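can u do me a favor
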């Protein structure tokens, strides 16, 4: 048995997921929709299709895994777990993309991930006064170390542990959910108390394995722990800030209002037409399928520029890389920035005379 039969049977093929699916919107192809992919899964489970079938493999890779289909599904289909099971079955050995295999091998060892701190100066080890632990993140501490430094300043009472490894989300999304679960549990043992994370994808993965009560994405944590923030200004006027949701944070954990409320507390908030739609980063997707990734993000970049904002805030390092690179290629005046960094600027503005 490849799939949990109850989860597979829950889909009633109603089609409510179709408008929410980015790849269906791009192609209009039924196979490139959640309903269509579940039909392929049923055929694979029943033996009507073989694992070597190219359509099944292609759709397992073409899917962004954004889980936008889950909130709109009237039957409560847990599509994300079905996709993980499909990739577990198909993405084995050399059938797993080499880029994913390389990244998974690198982050599997905490000491390798930890080497980034020697050069990138992410938040340093310290013992906090509260039962809260700051999760540093693999990609974030290497590419965007200022995010963890900002969060450490905003939540100085948080514990920052050394020797943190990967949370396992990378493995779970790339055909090794067993190892993904093991890494989540290992990190849960390493970090005491509530785990505070600035990466939406990591938050959703950890919550699935450690329990929702142990995991807090930073915007919802700060929503519960008020800060003294000043008004962020650009050229003497209130800064205009839009938000790009983290797919797994929004669709997996239902965190929608907190980051918006946080932005409104220090800037003029501007809602993008498709703020909740995937930006095409999708973990390793932008590396594995760069052309499709660019097709997904293109209309979003148009909407960001049309909104007349100064900043587009993000809640995930992959989204930051995707939007920052896309806007830079266009020569846009809009700055993509992690929300934690904007909040730190607002905190500094409050302290100014």
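np, heres the sequence
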């Amino acid at each position: 048995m490849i799939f949990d039969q109850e989860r597979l049977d829950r889909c009633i093929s109603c089609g409510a997921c179709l408008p929410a699916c980015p790849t269906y919107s791009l192609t209009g192809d039924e196979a490139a929709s959640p309903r269509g992919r579940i039909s392929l899964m049923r055929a694979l489970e029943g033996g009507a299709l073989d694992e070597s079938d190219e359509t099944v493999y292609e759709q397992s890779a073409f899917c962004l895994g954004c889980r936008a289909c889950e909130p709109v599904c009237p039957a409560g289909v847990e599509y994300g777990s079905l996709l993980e099971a499909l990739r577990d079955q198909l993405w084995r050995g050399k059938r797993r993309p080499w880029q994913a295999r390389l990244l998974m091998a690198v982050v599997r060892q905490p000491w390798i991930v930890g080497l980034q701190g020697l050069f990138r100066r992410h938040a340093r080890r310290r013992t906090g006064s509260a039962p809260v632990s700051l999760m540093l993140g693999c990609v974030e501490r290497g590419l965007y170390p200022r995010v963890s430094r900002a969060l450490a300043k905003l939540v100085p009472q948080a514990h920052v542990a050394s020797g943190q490894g990967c949370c396992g989300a990378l493995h779970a999304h790339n055909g090794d959910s067993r190892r993904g679960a093991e890494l989540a549990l290992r990190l849960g043992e390493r970090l005491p108390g509530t785990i505070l994370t600035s990466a939406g994808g990591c938050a959703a993965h950890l919550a699935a394995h450690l329990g929702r009560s142990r995991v807090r994405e930073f915007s919802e944590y700060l929503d519960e722990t008020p800060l003294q923030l000043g008004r962020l200004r650009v050229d003497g006027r209130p800064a205009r800030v839009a938000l790009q949701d983290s797919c797994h944070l929004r669709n997996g954990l239902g965190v929608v209002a907190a980051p918006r409320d946080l932005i409104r507390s220090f800037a003029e908030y501007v809602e993008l037409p498709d703020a909740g739609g995937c930006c095409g980063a999708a973990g390793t997707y932008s590396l594995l399928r760069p052309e499709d990734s660019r097709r997904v993000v293109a209309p979003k970049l148009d909407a960001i520029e049309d909104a007349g904002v100064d900043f587009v805030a993000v809640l995930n390092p992959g989204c930051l890389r995707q939007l920052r690179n896309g806007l830079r290629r266009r020569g846009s005046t809009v700055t993509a920035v992690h929300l934690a960094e904007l909040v730190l600027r607002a905190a500094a503005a409050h302290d100014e005379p």
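The chain has 21 helices and nine strands. hope that helps!!
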